[in-house]
Amino acid sequence: MLSIKCPYCQVRLKIDESKIPDHLNAFNCPRCKETISVSLLHRYKIVSNNEDTIYIQKNDNTAATLTVLPDACTPSQSFQLRTGINIIGRKNGNTSEAKIEIETNDKLMSREHIKIEAVQYGKGEYNYLLSDNGSKNQTRHNSHYLNQGEIIVLRDKDEIEIGNTKIQFNK
To answer: Distance between CA 53 and CA 169 in Å, rounded?
Structure first.
């Protein structure tokens, strides 16, 4: 049995992990009816386990990568995207929520500049959704500025510009 707490209403739930079908990605909380994302535990690594809650961390990456193109401020770097939400920005110690931190001196890049959500829709198949994460200096996709709230489906070899830094998306 897996003990979890609903992130919305805080009710504690006991779930028999063996009864979760492979295709199930979410379920509704029986109390507040909000959607709770799930995945089979064997796809995750247990980070911490106490009596009430099991904290897990996804350890399976998608096939997509981001390649930071080098310039005067930024060395070449490569990052693999994970299933779910990937926040990408300038490396700045522990003060950022970014999961992908780019080593750079580019001050026009925010610490949490963009969001790429990797959404699985088939066995090993993903859509990658790019959006600006409320940055001050906006985001460009293939040389076009993203509007506030705009979401772009990324394609292989698309170019993303955050600050003065160029990143290539590879699927």
So the answer is: 36
